[in-house]
């Protein structure tokens, strides 16, 4: 289902972007980058009202003709973006949610690695494996 | 959306204006043509009315009409039906309009700062406005709306006409024919009885004014005073002399044509050909009746392009083009040449008269009529619909009404109201019409009504109802999806987005615009996307990334629409968002596109910059992609480079890691020459080491201070011959003329593609500095060109290339470009002051800015027979050669070393003048022996030597060169003695040779040469010496009663580890050196005089030392035992003094660190009892005896026996080893023979402990026998014993008193025991418990208990223990 999974740093530069190899990688880069505007919009809208009890899952950021873009923001303002093929209608909101949770857990593991320098691109094999799992399982 | 010049209201008003047709006679046209203008053009600048008009609505309310504009067009007829999409010709026109508006260089930009983005955007988008205006003007007239139908017709006849009235009649008939014959579908007319306005054009310059007035009077009677006008123009004759400045209001309306003409020159060939086609179509046809000629025109490719005629703008455009060719004398800029300012006023008055007297009343009348019609009809609208339903023609998409259908009448009325700015009424009419149309499912009509309803709702003053944006959405959707009319949909979207924008609803506007993009028109999509992007950036929370993304989309569409300049601009603006933010893939894509577009526009510099950016970024691209980028870059680079000659442009690749650049000053050195081994000095192979360089600097400082009589000059700078990032590069380095400078660069290739570097050369610049080195340096200055060919920098590798020149060439397959890379070295980041810490500042780095100085001497040093491995203390002779290889004499040769005790050149006085012979050196002893062997045996010989003979200033040695200087080319060999370090292991020994020029140079005072050797020292002998007071008076000593003589024990142990190497050591000689003592006699335990030690053997030598009768403080007494060698001469003496020097130096160091308390204790005169004590103690303990043990080692190496020689030094400063006792004590054990051990298996041995107080004070002594000594010495002795009887004694010893205590020891088993276990504590009685000093004897008192009742007491040294 996921055709592209991205982790964006607090400063809005990519820590990790992987997309289905068959498709144009550049397109996904643009899509993810553009989605950051919506993410920021959502954060600023939500952040004030609820304080720290913020829902990390942002839901559908915006649909394009071919894809649906979902967003998730950690408390440290690291953004996760998952792009899903629009044709895949079987995918429920809950499944996307659980994908993000999985991604977040794996990301936390990466952060816990004492040899990982925060801010560097993620090169963890375990993380990569989780991501591939999400992309493969889904198609 | 970008800002527009007009406000939205103005824009909408101007988009919908009453249309007026012009039908003029040929004569009238000729009159106006004098001004280079057609009649409609003549009016155009004055079509905007400045004064207010008034109109009465059906309810007789007065409405003001402000800023009314009328559109005056020549009447052009055609048969074309309105198409649902933009025709190709129209498309071409629009694209040219867009093309003609290019962003200017100095265009107004605004800086948008959001978050951490700060963008520079163009505020206005004139190309879009031009596109929009042209698009709206070129809207084909449609049946479902009347807004752009002709409302009135101007019939223009010249007064020069023979019968003007007849002409009017003809024109009137012509108009009637056009409108009602049904021959032409275009133009369309608003109302059946179109307003005809009769204009008599009078040319002041040629016509008869009175006649014109007469005709006008006639006309007034015929058509009424409000239906005709006499327009007088051309008051001025054309003459080039009268060049008055008359304002030219036409140029701004017609300006676009000339602009377009200029632009056309630049457009690429295909565009030009299309233009030509266009031009040829148009040239043939200004004037009516041209439609037929067009249709048969051979160049006409597309018949639908006949709609061209409806495009008034094209019409004008073509006519001007045609006119330009017809009247080359008249410049295209000179419009209205025959018109005076009065004429301008006339025209203005005419238009105003026409509008207010003719047009508005006409409109008013029609509105009233329509309103009257509407009322009865709307009563029976329902039944009517059923009846008239037949009359409604169903067409492909919906319904088409006949022109007189009542629904259309409402619409017509609404349009009329709209045109005269009566928006309230218009809205209600539109609203009614909309309902009617929707009921009939006439979708096109309904959409039109919806659109206009929304617009008029927006334009209503005071805004009684909110803007119904859903009307617009529905209208757009209907136009697009139901009617498939993209033109109308686009118009609707343009209006709606503009309105939304004015209300701040940017996101809705953007969504609308994006929805309107489609595959069928790239130009439209591009423009709309760009506007959408501007909407995103203008939002309250600007969406920068969306802006950038849509800019890129717009750029893409622009490039598809062949608007590459606009595409380039879009990409450049988007680039600001993506730049340097880690989105490298997108960044590369943008850069690549920018590069390509820039290149096609001939902006090669920009193209190079963009491509360069791709290569410089840390690329995530694949290797093939990188190779493609690189190829593209090289291609562009080459083409740019081909244009320019002279300075080479800069290459981005490979990276020069400039901070790792190393600069080496000095020539290529010979490393070895035969047996000679050159000094290592400094080379590029060496890594920089902070500690090492500090060490060298310290050595150099020592040398300089010794050369300057102990003072280090203020401007002292350690000489650095190899500069790198860690060295001090604040000062420009000094380089000597005619000596090479080597620059080492480190290249890095960031690509996955390999680069070939060839023909690298270093560019340099020389500036003659008059102040520092006048003239002289230039002559000698020569940098030889060295070229490195084909240095392959393979992918992502670091490579160091040393070269003397740097000018690069890059090759990839066949492509080779030549370029340059600048070496810019930035110093380290400053971090001292607060400003430095707050900002990022870098220090200066002058590594690459050497100052060339006059010639300096250059010395090379070679070593001969220099060993790499030595035994500890081994003495070896080697030779050193100094060569002056320069053309300048050198002097002041000195050397400093980290191990000054390692080598000696021999003292001046005692240097044996032996020529160095390499052959015999193997077995030739380094020592100087006595010519005649003196008496063998135990008697010592004595020699007095002044210490000053060997004295050297610390660490620094003057090299005894004959004459003190080395002439150019001269070389000298000197002997050098080396002594193995005392500690085993590998020793790094550093030499720093110092020399200076004979004539003092202003820049460099001296030069240095470094040498580093590694000596592997292996263990030889371990020598321990101890001295004890002898209790028994020495038999020989008669004269000296004060000193009772001293026993000196020397323990020598062979600790050499190597199995086969060293066979045995011979102790050849023992010498001593002291101010006060001399070795007196060798007490031989064995008869053998020569002491041999094979592996792991140990020997003890015992000497008796005596104080010599005469004491000279200056000279040292040298005594030799087993005399063979003059140990007081070179090299033995040298090394001895070296060692002493270093050890005393160390002591001084220690002393200086301790507090002044202890110092004062020593320096105070012995007056009080306390200080008296210390001085006594010191006197008692001071020994100051240095022992030198000279040995020979027999070594088998390669089946050859070698004899190595060496010497070891031991300094005895005090008696015993631990010299801190307050009370000297002698322990004397009386030897006892135990009786019957076997009987009771216990052995009681009486032991006598003798305590003697050597001091003058009373001493309290505590003897504790129970104390268990845990020192290692007692543990050596196995088993234990116990003291029996009293185990603790407390005594007081008087002055010089000797007390003996008898103790009893009980042994249980046979064995060797150390009896020296009691702890003796002593303190002076006066000092109350301040310092109880433990008196622990170091040497054991051994007793051997033998099982068979035979008790042997063996005390290895003596019975006396002295502390």
TrEMBL record, chain A:
InterPro entries documented for this protein: Longin-like_dom_sf, Sedlin, TRAPPC2L
Top-rank taxon: Eukaryota
Coarse class of the protein's main subcellular location: cytoplasm
Pfam families in alphabetical order: Sedlin_N
Keywords, sorted A to Z: ER-Golgi transport, Transport
PANTHER family for this protein: TRAFFICKING PROTEIN PARTICLE COMPLEX SUBUNIT 2 (PTHR12403)
Family the UniProt entry places it in: Belongs to the TRAPP small subunits family. Sedlin subfamily.
Record's protein name: Trafficking protein particle complex subunit 2-like protein
Gene from which the chain derives: TRAPPC2L
Automatic annotation (TrEMBL), chain B:
SUPFAM superfamilies noted in UniProt: TPR-like
InterPro entries: Ig_TPPC8_1st (IPR058541), Ig_TPPC8_2nd (IPR058538), Ig_TPPC8_3rd (IPR058540), Ig_TPPC8_C (IPR057651), TPR-like_helical_dom_sf (IPR011990), TRAPP_III_complex_Trs85 (IPR024420)
Domain TPPC8 third Ig-like intervals: 1012-1210
Taxonomy, superkingdom: Eukaryota
Spans annotated as Disordered: 1151-1172
Cellular component, GO annotation: TRAPPIII protein complex
All copies of domain TPPC8 C-terminal Ig-like, residue ranges: 1240-1323
Domain TPPC8 second Ig-like: start-end pairs: 872-1009
Domain TPPC8 first Ig-like: start-end pairs: 685-798, 808-871
Protein name: Trafficking protein particle complex subunit 8
GN (gene name): TRAPPC8
């Amino acid at each position: 289902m996921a055709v592209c999974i991205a982790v964006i740093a607090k400063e809005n530069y990519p820590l990790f972007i992987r997309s289905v190899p068959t498709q144009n990688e550049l397109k996904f880069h643009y899509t993810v980058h553009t989605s950051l505007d919506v993410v920021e919009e959502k954060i600023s809208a939500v952040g004030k009202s609820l304080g720290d009890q913020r829902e990390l899952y942002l839901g559908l950021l915006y649909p394009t003709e071919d894809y649906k873009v979902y967003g998730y923001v950690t408390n440290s303002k690291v953004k996760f973006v998952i792009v899903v093929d629009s044709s895949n209608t079987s995918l429920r909101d809950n499944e996307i949610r659980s994908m993000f949770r999985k991604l977040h857990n794996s990301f936390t593991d990466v952060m816990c690695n004492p040899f990982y320098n925060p801010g560097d691109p993620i090169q963890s094999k375990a993380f990569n494996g989780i991501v591939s799992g999400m992309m493969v399982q889904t198609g | 959306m970008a800002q527009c010049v007009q406000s939205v209201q103005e824009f909408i008003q101007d988009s919908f204006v009453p249309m007026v047709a012009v039908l003029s006679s040929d004569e009238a046209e000729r009159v106006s043509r004098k001004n280079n203008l057609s009649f409609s053009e003549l009016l155009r600048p004055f079509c905007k009315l400045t004064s207010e008009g008034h109109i009465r609505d059906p309810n007789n309310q007065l409405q003001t009409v402000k800023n009314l504009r009328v559109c005056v067009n020549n009447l052009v007829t055609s048969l074309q039906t309105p198409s649902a999409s933009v025709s190709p010709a129209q498309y071409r026109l629009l694209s040219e309009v867009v093309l003609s508006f290019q962003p200017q260089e100095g265009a107004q930009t605004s800086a948008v700062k959001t978050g951490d983005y700060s963008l520079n955007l163009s505020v206005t988008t004139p190309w879009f406005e031009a596109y929009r205006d042209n698009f709206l003007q070129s809207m084909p007239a449609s049946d479902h709306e009347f807004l752009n139908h002709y409302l009135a017709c101007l019939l223009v006849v010249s007064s020069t006409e023979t019968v003007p009235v007849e002409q009017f009649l003809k024109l009137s008939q012509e108009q009637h024919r056009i409108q009602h014959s049904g021959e032409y579908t275009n133009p369309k007319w608003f109302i059946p009885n179109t307003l005809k306005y009769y204009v008599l054009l009078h040319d002041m310059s040629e016509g008869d004014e009175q006649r014109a007035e007469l005709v006008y009077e006639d006309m007034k009677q015929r058509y009424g005073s409000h239906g005709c006008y006499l327009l007088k123009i051309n008051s001025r004759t054309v003459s080039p002399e009268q060049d008055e400045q008359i304002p030219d209001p036409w140029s701004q309306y017609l300006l676009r044509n000339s602009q377009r003409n200029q632009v056309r020159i630049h457009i690429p060939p295909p565009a030009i050909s299309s233009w030509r086609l266009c031009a040829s179509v148009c040239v043939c046809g200004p004037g009516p009746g041209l439609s037929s000629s067009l249709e048969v025109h051979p160049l006409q490719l597309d018949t639908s392009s006949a709609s061209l005629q409806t495009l008034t703008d094209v019409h004008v455009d073509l006519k001007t083009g045609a006119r330009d060719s017809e009247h080359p004398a008249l410049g295209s800029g000179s419009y209205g040449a025959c018109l005076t300012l009065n004429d301008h006023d006339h025209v203005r008055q005419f238009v105003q008269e026409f509008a207010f007297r003719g047009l508005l009343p006409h409109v008013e009348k029609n509105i009233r009529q329509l309103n009257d019609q509407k009322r009865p009809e709307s009563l029976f609208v329902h039944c009517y619909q059923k009846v008239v339903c037949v009359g409604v023609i169903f067409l492909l998409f919906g319904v088409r009404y006949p022109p007189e259908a009542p629904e259309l009448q409402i619409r017509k009325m609404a349009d009329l109201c709209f045109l005269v700015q009566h928006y309230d009424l218009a809205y209600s009419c539109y609203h009614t019409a909309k309902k009617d149309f929707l009921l009939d499912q006439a979708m096109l009509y309904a959409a039109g009504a919806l659109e206009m309803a929304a617009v008029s709702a927006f334009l209503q003053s005071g805004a009684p109802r909110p803007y119904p944006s859903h009307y617009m959405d529905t209208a757009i959707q209907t136009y697009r999806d139901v009617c498939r009319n993209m033109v109308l949909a686009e118009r609707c979207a343009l209006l709606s987005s503009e309105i939304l924008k004015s209300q701040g609803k940017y996101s809705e506007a953007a969504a609308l615009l994006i929805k309107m993009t489609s595959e069928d028109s790239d130009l439209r999509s591009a423009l709309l996307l760009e506007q959408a992007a501007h909407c995103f950036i203008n939002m309250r929370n600007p969406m920068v990334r969306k802006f950038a993304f849509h800019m890129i989309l717009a750029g893409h569409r622009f490039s598809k629409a062949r608007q590459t300049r606009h595409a380039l601009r879009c990409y450049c603006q988007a680039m600001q968002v993506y730049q340097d933010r880690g989105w490298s893939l997108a960044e590369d894509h943008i850069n690549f596109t920018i590069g390509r577009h820039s290149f096609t526009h001939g902006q090669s510099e920009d193209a190079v910059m963009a491509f360069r950016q791709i290569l410089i970024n840390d690329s995530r691209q694949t290797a093939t992609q990188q190779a493609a980028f690189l190829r593209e870059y090289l291609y562009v680079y080459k083409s740019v480079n081909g244009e320019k000659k002279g300075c080479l442009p800069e290459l981005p690749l490979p990276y020069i890691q400039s901070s790792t650049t190393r600069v080496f000053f000095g020539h290529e050195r010979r490393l070895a020459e035969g047996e000679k081994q050159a000094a290592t000095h400094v080379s590029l192979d060496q890594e920089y080491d902070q500690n090492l360089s500090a060490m060298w600097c310290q050595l150099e400082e020592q040398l300089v201070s010794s050369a300057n009589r102990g003072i280090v000059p203020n401007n002292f700078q350690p000489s650095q011959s190899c500069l790198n990032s860690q060295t001090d590069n604040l000062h420009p380095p000094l380089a000597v003329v005619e000596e090479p400078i080597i620059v080492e660069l480190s290249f890095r290739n960031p690509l996955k593609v390999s680069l070939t570097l060839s023909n690298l050369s270093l560019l340099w610049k020389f500036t003659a500095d008059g102040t520092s080195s006048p003239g002289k340096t230039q002559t000698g200055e020569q940098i030889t060109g060295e070229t490195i060919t084909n240095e392959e920098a393979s992918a992502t590798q670091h490579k160091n290339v040393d070269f003397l020149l740097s000018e690069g060439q890059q090759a990839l397959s066949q492509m080779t470009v030549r370029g340059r890379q600048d070496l810019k070295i930035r110093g380290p980041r400053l971090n001292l002051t607060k400003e430095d810490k707050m900002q990022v500042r870098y220090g200066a780095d002058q590594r690459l800015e050497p100052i060339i100085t006059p010639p300096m001497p250059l010395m090379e040093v070679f070593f001969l027979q220099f060993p790499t491995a030595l035994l500890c203390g081994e003495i070896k002779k080697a030779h050193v050669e100094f060569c002056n290889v320069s053309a300048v004499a050198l002097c002041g040769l000195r050397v400093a070393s980290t191990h000054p005790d390692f080598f000696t050149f021999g003292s001046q006085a005692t240097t044996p003048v032996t020529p160095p012979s390499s052959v015999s050196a193997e077995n030739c002893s380094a020592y100087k022996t006595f010519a005649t062997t003196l008496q063998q045996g135990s008697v010592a010989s004595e020699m007095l030597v002044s210490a000053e003979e060997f004295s050297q200033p610390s660490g620094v040695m003057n090299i005894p060169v004959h004459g003190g200087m080395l002439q150019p080319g001269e070389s000298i060999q000197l002997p050098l003695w080396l002594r193995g370090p005392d500690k085993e292991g590998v020793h790094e020994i550093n030499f720093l040779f110092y020399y200076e020029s004979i004539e003092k140079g202003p820049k460099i005072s001296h030069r240095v040469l470094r040498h580093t050797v590694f000596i592997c020292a292996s263990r030889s002998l371990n020598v321990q010496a101890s001295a004890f007071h002898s209790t028994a008076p020495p038999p020989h000593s008669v004269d000296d009663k004060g000193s009772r003589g001293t026993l000196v024990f020397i323990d020598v142990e062979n600790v050499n580890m190597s199995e086969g190497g060293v066979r045995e050591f011979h102790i050849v000689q023992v010498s001593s050196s002291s101010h006060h003592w001399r070795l007196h006699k060798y007490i031989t335990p064995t008869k053998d005089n020569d002491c041999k030690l094979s592996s792991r053997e140990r020997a003890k030598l015992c000497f008796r030392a005596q104080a010599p009768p005469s004491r000279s403080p200056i000279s040292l007494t040298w005594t030799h035992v087993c005399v063979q060698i003059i140990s007081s001469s070179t090299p033995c003496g040298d090394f001895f003094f070296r060692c002493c020097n270093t050890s005393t130096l160390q002591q001084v160091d220690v002393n200086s660190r301790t507090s002044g308390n202890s110092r004062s204790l020593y320096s105070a005169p012995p007056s009080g009892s306390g200080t008296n004590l210390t001085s006594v103690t010191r006197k008692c303990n001071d020994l100051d005896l240095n022992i030198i043990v000279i040995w020979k080692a027999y070594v088998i190496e390669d089946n050859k026996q070698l004899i190595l020689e060496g010497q070891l030094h031991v300094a005895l400063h005090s008696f015993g080893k631990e010299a801190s006792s307050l009370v000297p004590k002698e322990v004397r054990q009386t030897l006892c023979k135990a009786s019957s051990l076997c009987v009771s298996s216990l052995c009681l041995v009486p032991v006598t402990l003798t305590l003697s107080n050597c001091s003058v004070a009373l001493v309290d002594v505590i003897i504790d026998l129970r104390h268990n000594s845990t020192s290692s010495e007692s543990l050596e002795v196995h088993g234990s014993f116990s003291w029996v009887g009293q185990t603790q004694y407390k005594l007081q010893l008087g002055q010089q008193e000797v007390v003996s205590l008898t103790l009893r020891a009980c042994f249980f088993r046979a064995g060797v025991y150390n009896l020296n276990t009691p702890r003796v504590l002593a303190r002076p009685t006066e000092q109350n418990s301040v310092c109880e000093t433990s008196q622990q004897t170091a040497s054991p008192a051994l007793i051997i208990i033998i099982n068979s009742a035979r008790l042997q007491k063996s005390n290895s040294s003596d019975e006396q223990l002295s502390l």
